[in-house]
């Protein structure tokens, strides 16, 4: 238990960390990679170059500090991060060096404001929070290894099929090279790939949502090729998978992980996706249909146009075969053929007016995934409509802690 003085100092200085989160994050990674360069392997280097990762780290620390007297309030953040840590192979012995480096970064950025008293209080708080993460991750490692077909660290899978789903998305059907059973997973979870790419100094690790129902003899991920755009660097691993990985090639993979999945309630469910955010939604949709769920299912997808719209035909097939499934499509930039063939239900973006047009009411469970602007728009629309937080769940591909604060 932390003493009252420590709690008071941490809570009063937490807003400072939020205010300077980007600078603290940048200084932290600069120090960390100079001290332990091998940790480059665990971090998305494209996100580093884009400046996304840096602010997210310090924001997470701020969030923990602001709730240091009520850590139950950050349970969802802890669950999300520990799932990712397990998938990445984070170990308990790495926490002390991270803590030391973080405190040094805070001191460097805040200067005289970060007095010895402040640093000492945050050191105590970090240790308390780190212990929660370490204990949670230890349980996750144990559960992962002990489940039927489970494993820890990485396992070799070969590409049984590579299927082009759109101009920018391809699916990879992965089977274990050792021929042994593989564990099931919850629809909405992801795989973590460790890519050793020729010419790259460090290997790269990426999370990719599983895009099919569980309990198959394969895992399927559907990956968008991230090209360079508006000065942002191209996705290293997505381009590697698209351009260099073929059928029969092998990939090193960590067991399924993730906290984004639907409940088993019978309340109507709405699955909303933007772009490649369709991947976990396909896993959910396929699972619900295969399990003969009687829930009312509404599948709503947004894309630029049919050229980049993955799995369209499959969803249309499910709608025809299942009376409880309906589907709607929004294209922000439809082609002339899209228009002439009426391939979409709305030109533009998903907004509250559209949701209220296609849905009978808001008494449903909403799950949504996609790029950050899409998530913020959907989140805002659902809040405006009065959808309770417990009926609104999202998955964010970037490391930003919340879409409200992004």
Query: What is the spatial order of strands in the main beta sheet?
Result: 4-3-6-1-2-5
Helix-strand pattern:
HHHHHHHEEEEEHEEHEHEHEHEHE
- Helical amount: 40-55%
CATH architecture term of the largest domain = Orthogonal Bundle
Sheet with the most strands? 6 strands, antiparallel
Shape: globular
Number of strands: 12
Task: Kindly report how far apart the N and C termini lie.
Answer: 31 Å
Describe the overall structure:
The chain is α/β, with parallel strands linked by helices. The protein folds into three domains: 4-146, Orthogonal Bundle (Globin-like); 155-257, Beta Barrel (Elongation Factor Tu (Ef-tu), domain 3); 269-396, Rossmann fold (3-Layer(aba) Sandwich), CATH 3.40.50.80. The protein is built from 13 helices and twelve strands. The strands form two sheets. It has a six-stranded antiparallel sheet with strand order 4-3-6-1-2-5. It has a six-stranded parallel sheet with strand order 10-9-8-7-11-12, sandwiched between helices. Helix 2 (21-35) packs across helix 6 (95-110) and helix 6 (95-110) packs antiparallel against helix 7. The longest helix has 31 residues, at 116-146. The chain is globular and about 65 Å long. It starts with a helix and ends in a 10-residue tail after the last strand. The mean pLDDT is 92.
């Amino acid at each position: 238990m932390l003493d009252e003085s420590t709690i008071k100092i941490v809570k009063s200085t937490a807003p400072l960390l939020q205010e300077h989160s980007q600078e603290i994050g940048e200084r932290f990674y600069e120090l960390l990679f100079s001290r332990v360069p091998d940790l480059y392997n665990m971090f998305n280097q494209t996100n580093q170059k884009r400046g996304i990762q840096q602010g997210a780290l310090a924001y997470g620390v701020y969030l923990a500090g602001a709730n240091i007297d009520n850590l139950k309030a950050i349970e969802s953040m802890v669950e999300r991060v520990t799932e990712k840590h397990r998938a990445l192979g984070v170990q308990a012995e790495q926490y002390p060096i991270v803590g030391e480096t973080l405190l040094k970064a805070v001191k460097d950025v805040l200067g005289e404001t970060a007095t010895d008293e402040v640093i000492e209080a945050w050191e105590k708080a970090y240790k308390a929070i780190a212990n929660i993460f370490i204990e949670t991750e230890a349980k996750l490692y144990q559960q992962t290894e002990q489940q039927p077909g489970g494993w820890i660290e990485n396992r070799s899978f070969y590409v049984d099929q590579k299927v082009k789903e759109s101009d920018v998305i391809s699916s990879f059907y992965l089977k274990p090279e050792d021929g042994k059973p593989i564990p099931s997973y919850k629809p909405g979870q992801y795989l973590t790939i460790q890519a050793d790419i020729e010419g790259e100094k460090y290997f790269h690790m990426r999370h990719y949502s599983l895009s099919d129902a569980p309990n198959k003899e394969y895992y399927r991920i559907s990956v968008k090729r991230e090209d360079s755009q508006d000065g942002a660097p191209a996705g290293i691993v997505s381009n590697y998978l698209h351009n260099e990985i073929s059928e029969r090639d092998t990939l090193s993979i960590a067991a399924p992980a993730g906290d984004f999945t639907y409940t088993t309630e019978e309340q109507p469910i709405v699955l909303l996706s933007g772009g490649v955010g369709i991947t976990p939604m396909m896993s959910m949709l396929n699972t619900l249909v295969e399990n003969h769920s009687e829930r009312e299912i509404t599948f709503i997808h947004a894309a630029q146009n049919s050229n980049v719209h993955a799995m369209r035909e499959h969803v249309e097939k499910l709608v025809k075969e299942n009376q409880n499934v309906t589907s709607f499509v929004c294209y922000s930039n439809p082609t002339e053929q899209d228009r002439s063939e009426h391939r979409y239900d709305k030109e533009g973006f998903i907004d509250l007016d559209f949701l209220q047009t296609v849905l009978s009411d808001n008494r449903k469970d909403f799950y949504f995934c996609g790029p950050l602007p899409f998530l913020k728009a959907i989140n805002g629309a659902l809040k405006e409509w009065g959808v309770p937080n417990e009926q609104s769940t999202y998955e964010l591909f970037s490391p930003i802690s919340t879409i409200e604060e992004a």
